[in-house]
Every structure is written in structure tokens, then in C-alpha cells.
């Protein structure tokens, strides 16, 4: 009789421990699921009413007029992403010209000539593929932005 009572006590203690572990795991999952999403790698967060606002910086590197491309030239972003091109090349004029946009998207417009240190920004909201280039160096300075 004493043995049976001790065995029941051990079983109920083990069951109680398992229940506590399950509660802790479920609480952890709840916290994980209720957390705001993290910004994708390589982008920065801005404070807005949305969970996060994404921005990407594209460099026109020093030496771009001698065969270097935009950096990065191709990317995949989410709708609402702001892309900023920054001219770091002091050897020639550059611009950003969109050569094709997805059906239903408004053409973002082309930049003016960019001087070293200047920037050009667009925010893309319509999903699809956008092609762009520097009109002065279109044989090597071009890129693709896919909005997913």
C-alpha cells in the first residue's frame, strides 16, 4: 500500500512538471507570434505606423563611369520600400532612368543628372519587376528591382 501511494505521487509530480513545461513552451510561442516582424537583412527601419518601413541605399560607386555598376544593382524588396541612389562618382554625370515597370504601376520618373554626393529616391508600391539604368552608361550600369 505504501508503495502504491509513493508511485501515484511520483506520477502526479511528473505530470505536473510536463504541464508546466507545455505552458512555458506555449507562452514562448505566443510571444514569438505576437512580436512585430524583423526588417529583412540589409535594410533599415524607420518609425511609421506600419510595423516597419523599409529603405534600401544603392551606391553609384567611385569609378562607375569606368565600368562599375550600381551597388547593389539587382534587389528584391517589399511594397512600400524606398530606394535611394547615392552618387559617389566624381568622374562623370549619372542619372536613374526606369526603362520598364510592371503593368498597373506608375512610372517613378527619371532622376535629374546626379552630381557627386547627390541622391535620388523612389518608393515602389506596385508588385512586379522594374528595370532601370544610367542613360549615360547603359551598356553596363543597369539594374532590376523586384517588388514582391
Describe the structure.
By secondary structure, the protein is α/β, with parallel strands linked by helices. It folds into 2 domains: 1-35; 44-147, Cupredoxins -  blue copper proteins (Immunoglobulin-like), CATH 2.60.40.420. Helix content is 22%, strand content 30%. It has 1 helix and 8 strands; from the N terminus they run H-E-E-E-E-E-E-E-E. A 4-stranded mixed sheet has the order 1-2-4-6, with no helix packed on it. Strands 3-8-7-5 form a 4-stranded mixed sheet, with no helix packed on it. The longest helix has 33 residues, at 2-34. The radius of gyration is 27 Å and the shape is globular.
Element layout with pairings:
Blueprint: H1 2-34, E1 44-46, E2 53-60, E3 74-77, E4 81-87, E5 97-100, E6 119-124, E7 128-133, E8 142-147
Care to give the gist of this entry?
The chain is an alpha/beta fold and 148 residues long. It has one helix spanning 2-34, and strands at residues 44-46, 53-60, 74-77, 81-87, 97-100, 119-124, 128-133, 142-147.
Largest sheet geometry: 4 strands, mixed
User: Which CATH C-level class of the largest domain is it?
Assistant: Mainly Beta
In CATH terms, what is the fold-level topology of the largest domain?
Answer: Immunoglobulin-like
Shape: globular
Report low-confidence residues grouped into runs of 5 or more: 29-37, 39-51
Amino acid at each position: 500500500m505504501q508503495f502504491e501511494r509513493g508511485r501515484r505521487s511520483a506520477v502526479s509530480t511528473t505530470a505536473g512538471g510536463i504541464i508546466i513545461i507545455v505552458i512555458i513552451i506555449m507562452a514562448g510561442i505566443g510571444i514569438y507570434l505576437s512580436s512585430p516582424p524583423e526588417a529583412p537583412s540589409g535594410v533599415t527601419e524607420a518609425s511609421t505606423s506600419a510595423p516597419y518601413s523599409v529603405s534600401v541605399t544603392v551606391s553609384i560607386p567611385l569609378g562607375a563611369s569606368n565600368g562599375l555598376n550600381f551597388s547593389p544593382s539587382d534587389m528584391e524588396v517589399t511594397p512600400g520600400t524606398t530606394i535611394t541612389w547615392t552618387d559617389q562618382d566624381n568622374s562623370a554625370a549619372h542619372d536613374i532612368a526606369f526603362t520598364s515597370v510592371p503593368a498597373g504601376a506608375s512610372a517613378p520618373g527619371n532622376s535629374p543628372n546626379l552630381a557627386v554626393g547627390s541622391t535620388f529616391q523612389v518608393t515602389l508600391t506596385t508588385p512586379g519587376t522594374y528595370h532601370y539604368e544610367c542613360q549615360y552608361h547603359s551598356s553596363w550600369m543597369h539594374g532590376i528591382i523586384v517588388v514582391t
